[in-house]
Amino acid sequence: MAQKIRKIGVLTSGGDSPGMNAAVRAVVRTCAYHKIDCVGIYRGYEGLIDGDFEPMDARSVRDIINRGGTMLKSARSDRFRTPEGRKIAYDNLVENKIDGLVLIGGDGTFTGGLIFNREYNFPVMGIPGTIDNDISGTDKTLGYDTALNTAVEAIDKIRDTASSHNRLFFVEVMGRDVGHIALNAGVGAGAEEILIPEENLGLDRLLESLLRSKASGKTSSIVVVAEGDKTGKNVFELKDYVDENLDGYDVRVAVLGHMQRGGSPSCYDRVLASRMGVKAVESLLEGESNYMVGIQHEKMELYPIEKAIKGKSHINKELVRVSEIMTT
Amino acid sequence: MAQKIRKIGVLTSGGDSPGMNAAVRAVVRTCAYHKIDCVGIYRGYEGLIDGDFEPMDARSVRDIINRGGTMLKSARSDRFRTPEGRKIAYDNLVENKIDGLVLIGGDGTFTGGLIFNREYNFPVMGIPGTIDNDISGTDKTLGYDTALNTAVEAIDKIRDTASSHNRLFFVEVMGRDVGHIALNAGVGAGAEEILIPEENLGLDRLLESLLRSKASGKTSSIVVVAEGDKTGKNVFELKDYVDENLDGYDVRVAVLGHMQRGGSPSCYDRVLASRMGVKAVESLLEGESNYMVGIQHEKMELYPIEKAIKGKSHINKELVRVSEIMTT
Amino acid sequence: MAQKIRKIGVLTSGGDSPGMNAAVRAVVRTCAYHKIDCVGIYRGYEGLIDGDFEPMDARSVRDIINRGGTMLKSARSDRFRTPEGRKIAYDNLVENKIDGLVLIGGDGTFTGGLIFNREYNFPVMGIPGTIDNDISGTDKTLGYDTALNTAVEAIDKIRDTASSHNRLFFVEVMGRDVGHIALNAGVGAGAEEILIPEENLGLDRLLESLLRSKASGKTSSIVVVAEGDKTGKNVFELKDYVDENLDGYDVRVAVLGHMQRGGSPSCYDRVLASRMGVKAVESLLEGESNYMVGIQHEKMELYPIEKAIKGKSHINKELVRVSEIMTT
Amino acid sequence: MAQKIRKIGVLTSGGDSPGMNAAVRAVVRTCAYHKIDCVGIYRGYEGLIDGDFEPMDARSVRDIINRGGTMLKSARSDRFRTPEGRKIAYDNLVENKIDGLVLIGGDGTFTGGLIFNREYNFPVMGIPGTIDNDISGTDKTLGYDTALNTAVEAIDKIRDTASSHNRLFFVEVMGRDVGHIALNAGVGAGAEEILIPEENLGLDRLLESLLRSKASGKTSSIVVVAEGDKTGKNVFELKDYVDENLDGYDVRVAVLGHMQRGGSPSCYDRVLASRMGVKAVESLLEGESNYMVGIQHEKMELYPIEKAIKGKSHINKELVRVSEIMTT
């Protein structure tokens, strides 16, 4: 039987994403609603080990729902990968009478939480906070929607100058292992070509496509490239390759970079964060543990953390096809 | 047996919404992809009756994916409500050899399309374009996501000044019959209270809530109100009511208004529009008719127009509860 | 000879404007740079009377440069209009060893400061913070540039929907006594007509202009109206008037309202705030008093507060002419 | 005596900047107002040589005031650098009965115009369109204000993630020869250090500054770097240098790039463009030639193109000092 939860700790870990603050706020306010205590843990697992704790109430999270980043800070923790580190963390939790943890982060965050849970049978509940949308068990991760808008708005600006000058731009967006951002931002920005890790378009087909595009009278082009695309070339190498193999294009590169992680969260991400925060706390209160809160078919669902880690987020094949139709 | 489709007409009708242009673009490009003709029909059913047609190809829809409004214009048509008007419309379609119609709009647009289909057995396919998200058979309507972001960004600005002055603001958002925008924008903007048509909060409870909020040290408040909320008072009357019945608040009103219909669509709406446009055209090509293209559980689905019209879009009860927890 | 300044107080008063936080930050950091103490005074003159003071250092103003509103809050103070109130304020300053005040606000704020200075010979320095740009002695007030961008972005959205529906919109922007916002936002948004307090266009000419516009094939129109325009009608009355006197227009109203006061400040306002904050503190340190810091010809200048209050900000006649050429 | 002007040509050339479309619109509408003809020339001097002309009226420039880029396209022209190329251009102008040219662009554009004027005594009038603000004779160039806002908004987002992770970011902004963008965006974004071409801060002082910043408890930092700063290292080399010479910082790089050239112009740039367009056309009509329209002390002024080219835009020393005070 699950012990009764009287105090919950919340931390953010891994790469930050827009909506993390809104999720922290929701966790804190749900605790207040249920009249249990809430503690903010700074710098993820590092703060857990260092005992960097702060009691939080509704006032602590005032005016943060619209802010990017995470007020609890984030960090990677090598120490938490060691049994010694986790032991200290556990002792800190016990000493502070914390009975459950809400972990906001991605794959690495969840892996740490799972190991910790297995060692100490400590109740943990995950919230998927990452812009990459690369976690299975949830249709959307927290921050993904905002990152797409940021990417599309930046590409809109780049298109202004590309069109004015008849230029070809390679625009690199985030996504080392999965092409969700590239595919969606590419379709959203009306890109002429999209290169993602899941599909090996091949350099030949890229050249062909650019030639066809040029022949049809298009004088400027945007090619959106995921960091981890499968051509084996990064955007700068792609530029060189096209410069060498294709005449009459003025080729440029833009790397959107970390900008995509920041910014005020979209309404979608703020609402998702609020729902996930409520669900995470109430699930802990109901005695659940080792789940990630996901959104599936517009509903809040619990999904085993273990499956979330091992699972794979698949690219939407229908959208790949849509992108091909839109760019022909 | 469905006749073979060789030329498709597309129109936008009813209140405009962000993403309509992206949907028109997708319809046009999908026709080009399948090597069939496409015709833009201006001013909705009015243009159908007036024969205000224009052939469209990929070039016609260049650089419109990121624009608000609709390049095809929209209008309400009293004439299309008469058999005589619809007869002229039909003759125009036959004369122009148009074999199928994609109708982008809301409830009224679909009703017109359904009647027209029944009279002339003319293939029609609907795309739900409206910011209100009030159509059943689709988890999201086109433009809804953008409208939420517009509302939340405006309320963020209002909060800046509300906080600086310890003021109470009643902010009216769109939504005459349904509270989706109010509920989501309210949660997203961290409103202290949300008034929607689906729930009769009652004025007494509103006063109580504001008193409680004040007692807890909150010195400024945002109350988000749907146009059609059930208190029976509009925002200006609400202001007067609170002025009379609650001391110590400097109460103001903000009506967000038509701004919510415009603006560059969010990435979500652009992608949704692209998917729906492809699906609408390909469904017509496959011989389908009388359906609306919806998104359900992240997938494109056909939904009978008749059910879409008669159905009702229900407020998310879980989110109502989340809003109560967040505002306590 | 001016006494040596060792501690400076800073307050914001009157209507808030974007950039006030950036100015507070600059005041605090300039004090730190010169190794003198700085005290934040909450809620303007109210906090001065209530002794609502807080010592501030570089950390206190971290991460506020990009935020709308004012972290020091603002309020109107009836008590400060009385000699008794000012006496208490003065005693609080003496008790807290504050030797100089930076006053961020508009006309009313400066009037209060001037009276206070005359009674107690207390060093005061003003920073013009108001979105209305209605203060003489400075080419721009703090927040004005941001408010213009906010207004123009909102009108851009309204134009999307106006164009889609062939509608005429009356858009009311702030500006009770001066038309700077209306004139600049009107030109910036490409409005078809602009009504400002300084020019009595007259209703007849408005109708003529709309008729001409319609005759030339324009099917939608935006008329930007300053709150205090001289037609003697507010936007709702204007709508009714046009409805009655002009056929074939679907007329709507949009009131932008308090949204214009909030939002993250533009780069211009952040830089202006930083420069003004430095100048205000250093001028006090140099023994100056009773001046407002203004920007004239791109340079920081001191301008007597007395003249700033009595002066009048004139509408740019050349820009009025530009607006006429653009809208013909 | 100047010949009477009956037809004006307008072109955009060099790097595009936000507000160019608004300036083209103003030129076209001012011509319409004065009932003279106007011709758009595509792709700058290239189109002048190719005879790529199009008559323009008020309708041609509808709905472009808010768009980035330039509808007339821009290009660099090697041919216009040759007497033969300019001869063809002149013949095209004569053949098309164009009596005057409005040239929207930067340094290179103006140099071409000046040579052309000297050879053929052809009336030319310049409008300074470039984001770099590097032209003397005008307090602001067209597009500069928008570029600053774009840069600051991007850095705000980067700061979100920098703060969450205690990271140091080198952010490169545009400005090969002048540091206006870096200095203003740096102050506006609250950067901890700003590197510009005009001041050789030196790497030692940079390290010292970062050390001091760290010692004072700051855990994240933004260093804004102009493309052409004088450390002799680009942002990637700076990162490597700091990685090697400073412990305990997680250093990252962001290059804002061409995004800064695009986007919807700010209200300031739209108004400035409108004023400059009117002034340029009316100055040609008054028989003036070989001037650039500048804004000086908030007024439209004519400035000899020759001086504009040879002149140098100086960094604001007062603002350099403000930046030092803000970052100490």
UniProtKB/TrEMBL annotation, chains A, B, C, D:
Catalyzes the phosphorylation of D-fructose 6-phosphate to fructose 1,6-bisphosphate by ATP, the first committing step of glycolysis. Substrate binds at T130, I131, D132, R167, M174, G175, R176, E227, R252, H258, M259, Q260, R261. Mg(2+) binds at D107. It comes from Leeuwenhoekiella palythoae. The keyword DNA-binding does not apply. GO terms for molecular function: 6-phosphofructokinase activity; AMP binding; ATP binding; fructose-6-phosphate binding; identical protein binding; metal ion binding; monosaccharide binding. Homotetramer. ADP binds at R25, A26, V27, V28, R29, R159, G190, A191, E192, K218, T219, S220. Keywords: Allosteric enzyme, ATP-binding, Cytoplasm, Glycolysis, Kinase, Magnesium, Metal-binding, Nucleotide-binding, Transferase. It is found in: Cytoplasm. Residues 7-283 form the Phosphofructokinase domain. It catalyses: beta-D-fructose 6-phosphate + ATP = beta-D-fructose 1,6-bisphosphate + ADP + H(+). It is an enzyme of class 2 (transferase). This is ATP-dependent 6-phosphofructokinase. ATP binds at G15, R76, S77, G106, D107, G108, T109. It comes from the Bacteria. Its EC number is 2.7.1.11. GO terms for cellular component: 6-phosphofructokinase complex. Belongs to the phosphofructokinase type A (PFKA) family. ATP-dependent PFK group I subfamily. Prokaryotic clade 'B1' sub-subfamily. GO terms for biological process: canonical glycolysis; fructose 1,6-bisphosphate metabolic process; fructose 6-phosphate metabolic process.
